[in-house]
Amino acid sequence: MKFVTKVWHPNISSASGAICLDILKDAWSPALTLKTALLSLQALLASPEPGDPQDAVVARQYISEHETWTETARAWTRSYATREAASAASEAKVAKLTEMGFSAAAAARALQDSGGDEQGALEALLSGAGA
What we know:
single chain; mainly alpha; Ubiquitin Conjugating Enzyme; 2 domains; 6 helices
């Protein structure tokens, strides 16, 4: 389990989206359900644990410059986790694919079919599946 969308949080890697949560590593048990994992993640998001960080830079900011941390987290939310941000990212991906010679419609369709994965869309377009 990891975040695909960038998140500014002490227990989530700002680079990879990896989550520092005990039930996802040391305390994992086959008896745990997806519901349990998601509830634990929700609790972690609401109550960061900077003493056991995944991202030390974010944790230091959370502890020593909390107001700056809050502003940065809000800015990242606006930049990476809104419809406008998703739309802008999608438009940028379509633009990259059209620069390679594919039509905008084919690029958009291939991106949609690949779940937004640019590499997957390119492979589909090159194989003719996205044409």
